[in-house]
Fold:
Amino acid sequence: MELHQLRYFVAVAETGSFSRAAEQCSVAQPSLSQQIKRLETTIGRPLFDRLGRSIALTDAGNALLPRARRILAEVRETSDLLSAGAGPSDGRLAVGAIPTMAPFLLPPALHKFTSQHPDCRLTVREDLTERLIDALVDCELDCAIMSTPIEHELIETEMIGRENLLLASAMDDPLSDVGRLSLDDLRDRPTVVLHEMHCLGRQIRGFCQSSGMTRRIVCRSTQLSTVLELVGLGL
Structure:
């Protein structure tokens, strides 16, 4: 398996065409096609289904694509690092975080990092878990802060903290004087929830469902700050 074969394979997968991939890679199409066939011979399985004038990735092709992108990204980064004579503080770092965590965890961490590595080219992406996972697999991000569980064979995870789920109520709500609450205290209460587009919203929904607790939802918000503001207004 050669690096140029992986480059050709990724180009074909991304352009959806052998001819466009050959043009992108500045190589003759017969040469590119030959290298793809050699790669398929090495792997022992076809990478593309040839469907007339169109092509589609096979299961083997889909499995190879994220790995090939990662290998090529590592090669590019290593080449850039060595050619620039970079030191420990040089280079690039792409960080991702989900919106429910980014405002609270990223600023202090990035402040400390940039003070220690002022020459590093830092980029930050705030996005949903599913998109961050795709970006990690495609080597668009180096690391990301997300909520567990994260189960992907190409992603290594490390637990950096745990937090309890908390109930928020308005100051003048009778619940604020109850003390220790039970689930029965919350049944059928008007509820402002975090939208299930966020993994935290799905976790809360799953907790309520597993506990057999019905919710009378009056608002779904995509922002934690909005949830708290609406709760404070007594909604």
